[in-house]
C-alpha cells in the first residue's frame, strides 16, 4: 500500500464522520492535528459535496457569540476552525455540551434575560491540539467522536504531488502540472533544510507566490518568497541568485546564460557577479 492510498484511507474515515454530522447521524466531531495537513480543506469539501447547509467560522468566538451563531442557524452544520480560542472562554463549554447533548441551549444575562435555542444542527470543531482536559469538555467528548489526524511527511508529499499533477489555479491564473510539481520540489527542499514538517498550506501559498512572480507583480523570485514564509523574515534575493549561478557552473556558457536570463531576467554580467559571491561566501 503506497503513501497516497494510506492517506486516502485516513481521509475516508474523516469524510465518513463529516457526512455523519451533515446527515444528522451524529451531532458533532472534534478533529485535531498539526496545521497545514488539509483538515479544514477535507471537512469543507466534504460538506460542499454533501449539499447540506453549513456555516464556516474561523475567527475569534466567545461563548455568547457561539450561542448567537447557533441560534441564528439552528439546523445547519457549524464548522468551528481553530477552536482553541473559543475554549479560552469557559462560558462556551456549557453551550457546546448542551448543543451536542440534549440539544436545548439556554443563555442567561442580566440585561437580556433568558434566551433559548433548540439546536438540531451539527458542530464540527477543528483544532491543532487535543481536547483540553477540562471536565465539561471531556463530558462533551462522550457525545461525539474525537479524531486525531496525524499524516506522515511521506503521506503529505504524496498528496502534494497528487494535487500538483492537476496543476494549480487561483484568481483566473494557472500553473501547469510541471510548474506545480516544481513548486512541490522546492517546498520539500526548503522545508527539509529548515527541519520543518511538510505542509499543504505552504504548498498552496508557494503556488500563489509563483503566480504572483510570473505575473510580474513581485520583484523577488518566488523561491525567495517561499524562503521568507519559512524563515518569517525578509528573504535575500541575492542569496538565491548566488546559488543559481553556482549551480550553472560547468554548463556550456550559452546554456548557462539562457537559463540565467530565463530565471532572473538579468544579463550575463550579473550571472558572473552572482557566481563570484557564491564562491567567495
Q: For the terminal residues, how far apart are their CA atoms?
A: 45 Å
Mean pLDDT reading: 89
Q: In this structure, how is the largest beta sheet organized?
A: 5 strands, parallel
Radius of gyration: 24 Å
Q: How much beta, percentage-wise?
A: 5-15%
**Helicity range:** 40-55%
| Total DSSP E strands | 9
Question: What is the string of SSEs from the N terminus onward?
Answer: HEHEHEHHEEEHEHEEHHHHHH
Overall geometry: elongated
Structural class: alpha/beta
Strand order of the largest sheet: 2-3-6-1-7
Number of helices: 13
**Low-pLDDT residue spans:** none
How would you summarize what this structure contains?
With 281 residues, the chain is of the alpha/beta class. 54% of the residues lie in helices and 15% in strands.
Can you describe this structure?
This protein is α/β, with parallel strands linked by helices and 281 residues long. The protein is built from 13 helices and nine strands. The strands form three sheets. Strands 2-3-6-1-7 form a five-stranded parallel beta sheet, with helices on both faces. It has a two-stranded antiparallel sheet with strand order 4-5. α3 packs parallel to α5. The two termini are 45 Å apart. 31% of the residues are buried.
